[in-house]
């Protein structure tokens, strides 16, 4: 059985959400652990998810870069108009 989900930061967040935090005393941890299923992944599925994750990260970085460029452009316009 593959533990890809638990090894990923998203899987860790899921486990942390149910086992830690301000509301942990109100959660039924035993029920969560008994019903927690880790799916099995073959190498093709792992590669596909990895590529999708890389693409999403790349798009996010591009978006942040474009936003920074737009912000810098607006700031330079403001400086020019104030001068």
β-strand number:
0
Radius of gyration: 21 Å
Shape: elongated
Helix content: over 70%
Annotate the secondary structure layout.
Layout: H1 4-7, H2 9-19, H3 29-35, H4 43-82
Walkthrough of the structure:
It is a single chain. The chain has 83 residues and is an all-alpha fold. The protein has two domains: 1-41, no CATH class; 42-83. The chain contains four helices and no strands. The longest helix has 40 residues, at 43-82. This is Type I restriction modification DNA specificity domain-containing protein.
Summarize the entry for a quick read.
The protein is mainly α.
Output the keywords.
mainly alpha, 75% helix, Type I restriction modification DNA specificity domain-containing protein, 0% strand, 2 domains, 83 residues, single chain
